[in-house]
From TrEMBL:
The keyword Cell membrane applies. Pfam families: HATPase_c. This is C4-dicarboxylate transport sensor protein. It is found in: Cell inner membrane; Cell membrane. It comes from the Bacteria. It comes from Sinorhizobium kostiense. It catalyses: ATP + protein L-histidine = ADP + protein N-phospho-L-histidine. One of its GO terms (molecular function) is protein histidine kinase activity.
Length: 621
């Protein structure tokens, strides 16, 4: 009996302790239910703002890439145009009417092919000599553009860039210029006008609050029509006077337009880590981020409404409130249940045992729930880690260098087709167009191979006729060689040998060596380039020999280093010989540079022979 009373006493004490604990938890949960919704509202609002900031940052990255891509399409066009004899002839002050007509027609043809808005040529005084729109009422010919900064910058530094509204056509555009120096004559300036309005049209169609402001803070492209030709902040008198003098936004009353940002808000410098700004525009709250676009000093603005952040924060606050009420009700229920258990414990020891068993069951359920939660947490962490690893594997390879070489050949081929078209030589025009199409395909393959080289992917090796590779490379270089007054000579001994290689890559090596030789002999009175192929001791050697200035002794050890170049800025990235060396080594050969007999350079490719029959180059490609 004493034992039974002792157990009953212990049961009542345990029941009282449990009831007090559950009561405290119920009160604590009730207090938390009153506080946590406000905390959840604040945290959810902050998370929503952070998500919007990340979205704006991604939008800025895509916008910057889109701007760079649109400009890069025409960056080299003025320099390429300036290499044409019809354009260089304009530097002669005694230029004839026929020369002017030929230049006008050439610029008109290039505009149709390249997709630029306009092309025109200025003399050293800023007067337009020839233009692609010479036959239209808005012709640039004869107009004075010396007040434009892009002309002044080109004369001083060799190139210029400027965005403005055209004073002749009243159409805005981005002007890219290059100074063309012709020996014995005053320089001329080639100008390409690129149309950036497609970016604005795309933003409007997508409903994106995106805008680009110039270095003065004036928005000139925007997906929001109300922002166009408005300053971000109030303009100074100096800025207004400079813009009036340069006639940047001719016809727009900049002094009378209200700034986009409030007076208390100053746009940041455009760093990627600059905090977002919350501004009021048109009666709604906007979250805005900025980024800088160089070298023009443009400021890109991306904004979005914060109206939905309040809804998201309210949703989470309501969810926490409901969860707190449910938890409080559950604890209250447990408290009442504990009272019932305490009453039952008073009646019998058997009831105490059942309560203990039930308590053990609850403990097992809690342990099982904890294990389940731990497993779910580990699975979630594994998925997050996998996603991070997948993100690290995504990257892009920039392709710049090798496209410029076949592009020069393509321009010359199309120019020849234009001349033949004027002579109504339809069959020869067709041949030139086929050549141009082949060059485009070759350029696409070159880009593909550069990407393959950057990823170090394996390519399928095959038996290649090296003479066919050499002839194709010479064919590609012939238009450039003719402008220098020579034709590369091929000296081949014996039957055509076969090597193990990838035909297109090997052709790229040969073309690079020939073009480097052409650069070396430019300006020589009697330029000469010879491609000599020989077979000896189970190896085939191809030597490209020129009578140029040769390689300086201090440059011989670095000539195949990546990004090393002796050319002027803008003429190359110094990757050609580095890529060529890597390709030749991939095929088991070597690339050697030496001084040619009698002066100049001799670049020799040496590769082992392959006794298998060669595939035609077209099939290999």
């Amino acid at each position: 009996m004493h034992r039974f009373q002792s157990n009953e006493t212990r049961g009542r004490q345990a029941g009282s302790a449990m009831m007090r604990n559950i009561g405290r938890m119920t009160v604590l949960m009730l207090v938390l239910t009153c506080i946590l919704p406000f905390v959840a509202y604040h945290l959810a609002g902050g998370a929503a703002i952070s998500a919007l900031e990340g979205q704006l940052q991604r939008s800025l990255v895509l916008t910057n890439r889109g701007i760079a891509t649109e400009i890069e399409r025409f960056r080299y066009l003025p320099l390429v145009i300036g290499e044409d004899a019809r354009i260089r002839a304009l530097a002669d002050r005694k230029r004839s009417a026929a020369a002017l007509a030929a230049a006008n027609l050439y610029l008109q043809t290039v505009v149709k092919q390249a997709g630029a808005a306009e092309l025109y040529v200025l003399d050293d005084r800023g007067i337009a000599l020839a233009a692609s729109n010479f036959a239209t009422p808005e012709s640039f010919v004869g107009h004075d553009y010396s007040f434009r900064p892009y002309f002044q910058d080109a004369l001083l530094t060799g190139e210029g860039r400027y965005y403005a509204i055209g004073v002749t056509t009243r159409k805005p555009g981005y002007f890219l210029t290059s100074r063309i120096d012709v020996p014995g004559h005053p320089p001329i300036v080639v100008v390409v006008k690129a149309d950036l309005l497609p970016l604005e049209v795309a933003w409007k169609a997508a409903g994106v609050q995106t805008a680009i402001a110039d270095r003065w803070g004036i928005v000139f492209l925007s997906g929001n029509p109300d922002w166009k030709y408005r300053p971000l902040s109030a303009l100074s008198a100096e800025a207004l006077e400079r813009l009036r003098k340069e006639r940047t936004y001719d016809g727009a009353d900049l002094g009378a337009t209200a700034p986009i940002l409030p007076q208390s808000v100053t746009p940041p410098a455009g760093e990627t880590d600059a905090p977002a700004l919350q501004v009021e525009q048109g009666g709604q709250q906007l979250l805005a981020r900025f980024s800088r676009v160089e070298p023009d000093g443009w400021l890109v603005l991306a904004a979005t409404s914060t109206a939905d952040t309040g809804k998201v924060a309210g949703f989470w606050a309501l969810a926490v409130l409901i969860a707190g009420l449910v938890s409080t009700g559950t604890l209250y229920f447990l408290h009442q249940r504990t009272l019932l258990i305490r009453m039952r414990l008073r009646h019998s020891e058997m009831l105490e045992q059942k309560v203990a068993e039930r308590t053990q069951d609850l403990a097992r359920e809690i342990d099982m729930r904890r294990r389940t939660e731990d497993e779910l947490r580990r699975a979630q962490e594994g998925l997050i880690h996998s996603e991070k690893m997948a993100a690290l594997g995504r990257m892009s390879t920039a392709i710049v260098h090798e496209v410029s070489q076949p592009l020069a050949a393509l321009e010359t081929t199309l120019a020849t087709a234009g001349v033949l078209a004027e002579k109504e030589a339809a069959d020869k025009v067709g041949e030139r167009l086929l050549d141009a199409r082949a060059l485009v395909k070759r350029m696409q393959r070159t880009v593909k191979h550069l990407k393959t080289f950057a990823r170090k992917d394996a390519s399928d090796l095959e038996a290649v006729n090296i003479d066919t590779v050499i002839r194709n490379a010479i064919d590609l270089a012939v238009p450039r060689a003719k402008t220098l007054g020579l034709t590369p000579a091929l000296e081949a001994e014996g039957p055509a040998p076969v090597v193990t290689a990838v035909a297109v890559k090997l052709e790229q090596v040969m073309l690079n060596l020939i073009l480097n030789a052409l650069d070396a002999v430019e300006g020589r009175q009697t330029p000469s380039i010879t491609v000599r192929r020989a077979v000896e001791a189970g190896r085939v050697s191809v030597a490209v020999i020129d009578n140029g200035s040769g390689i300086a002794p201090e440059h011989r050890d670095r000539i195949a280093e990546p990004f090393f170049t002796t050319k002027l800025t803008g003429e190359g990235l110094g990757l050609g010989l580095s890529i060529a060396t890597a390709i030749v080594q991939e095929f088991g050969g070597e690339l050697i540079f030496a001084e040619a007999p009698g002066g100049g350079t001799m670049a020799t490719v040496s590769m082992p022979l392959d006794n298998r029959p060669a595939l035609p180059l077209e099939a290999a490609q």
